[in-house]
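Q: Hand in one record:
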Amino acid sequence: MHLFILILQLFGAIALFIFAIKLLSENLQALSGSNFKRTLNTLTKNNFSTIVTGTVFTTAIQSSSAASVFILGFVNAGLINLRKAFGLILGANLGTTLTLWLVYFGMKFDLVQIALPLTLIAFPFYLSKKRNQRKIGGILFSLSLLFLALYFLKTFLPSIESHQKLQEFFQHLSHYGLLTNLLFIAFGILLTILVHFSSASITIAILLVSKGLPIELAAMIVLGANIGTTFTAHLVAAIGDKYTKVVAAFHTFFNVIISLIFLFLGDLLLKFIGTNISSNLAVQLITFDTIINLFGVILFYPFINRLAFYCQKKYFSIQQTDKKLEFYAIPFGTNSDLYKNEANKKLLKLATTTKQTIYTLGRMITESDEEKILVFRERILELEKEGDQLEREVNEFLNEIADLDLPNENTLAIHQLITLCHHLESVGDIAIKISSIHRRRRMTNSYFTPKMRTYLVDFQDNLDQATRILNQNLNETLEEVSGKQAEFIEKTINTIYKEAEINLMKTIEKEKLLTTSALFYKDLIQNYEILGDHLYKANITIVKLKNQ
C-alpha cells in the first residue's frame, strides 16, 4: 500500500510539472505573441538573425513544441518563407537548452521557499481587470507551480543508488551496448510525445541522473526527447498545407540526424564535458544537450538556403489550390494575429471565387447562344455553392476564436473578418439572382435597347474593377492598401444606376417598352447596384483591418 501511494505521489508530481510548464508557456505566448508577429520580418532578414530570433522566441514561451506550432502557423499564414522557417526551427532547438539552464538554476534554491511567496505576489495580478496584468499573474503563478512540482519530483523520485536491484538492472542493461542506447532513445521519444514538452522530459532525465541513473543512458533520453518534440509539429502539419509538412519534416530530419551522430559520439562528448567543463551531472547533461543542438545549428547553417531552394523547386514548382479549407486543430494559444493571418489566407480563396463569379456574370450580358448562357448559369451556381462552403468554414473558425480571451482590438478585427466573409458570400447570392433574371429575360424574348445594354456593360466593367481591387487589397501589405479606388468605383456604380434608371423611364415613354422588359431591367440594375455595395463594403472592411 505504501508503494502504491509513493507511485501516485510520483506521477502526481510529474503531472503537476507538465501542467505548470504548459500554463507558463500559454501565458508567455499570450503576452508576447502580438509584438513578435509585428516585428517578425525585421528579425528574420538573414539566417543568423533568424536563428537568434527562434532561440529567443522559444526561450520566451518556454516550449520548443509550442514554438514549432507557431512557426508552422507563420508558414501557413504566408508570413514567412521556407528559408526563414528552417532558421527559426534551428533556433527553437537552441531555445530549449536555455530553458533547461533556467530550470537548473531554479533547482539550486529551496524551491518551496520561493514558490509560496511567488504565489502571494501573483495573486493581486491574477485578480486584475487589465488583461496584461492577469497574464503576468498567470506567469508568476505558473512559475510557482513549476517550483513546487520540481520540489515534489526531487522528493518522490526513488534513489537508484539506494536500491540494489535497480543498480543491478542498469548494470545488466549496460551489456547490450547499442541496443540499450536505442531503448532509452525510444523511452525519451515516447515520454516527450506523452508530455508534449521536450524540456519536461529532459528535466526528468536530469532528476534521474541525480538519483543515480547512468549519465550515458540519460543522454540517450535527451536524444529521444529532441526527436519526440517534433511529434506535435507533425500533428499540426497533417492538416496544414504542403509548406507546413515540409517544415515539420525538416524539423524531424534535423533532430534525427543529430541524434544518430551522437548516438555513437555521445560517450566521447560526455567524457570531454566531465573532464573539462564540470563534474556536476546535471550540468553535464544540460551541456550535452546544448552542445549537440549548437553542433546541429553549425552543421546545417551553411545549407539553409540550398535546402529551402531544393524543397521549393521539388515540391512547389506547380502550385495547387484546394477547394477544401483546413484550419489548425491545435490552437495558437491566444495569439490572435496568427489566427487573423490564417483566416486572411483562406479568405483569399473566397475572394477568388467572387472574382470568378463576377467574370462569369459578365459573359451572360453579351452572349446570345442559349446553351452557353445555361453553361454560365450552371457555373455561377457551382461557384456560389463553393463560396457557401468556404464562407461556412471560415465563419466557424472565426466564431470559435472570437470566444478566446483576446485583446479588444483583436476581438474587433475578428468580427470585421466575419463581416468581410458575409459581404463576399452575399455576392454569390446576388449573382444567382442576376443570372436568373438574364435567363428568364432570354426565355421571354424580352427586348433591351442598345443604350440599356451599354449601362449593363458599364456596371460589369466597374464590378470587375472592384473585385480586382478586392483581391489586390487582400494580398497587399499595409502601406499599399487603400480604399480610395473602391470608393471611386462605388460612386461610379451609383451614378450609372441613377442614369440607367432615368434612361429606363425615357425609354418606356418614347419606345413603348414592354412591361416585362422594363421589370427585368429594373431588377437587373437594382441587383447590380447592391452587388457594388457589397464589394465596396468588403474593400473598406479590408482597409480597416489592415490599418488597425
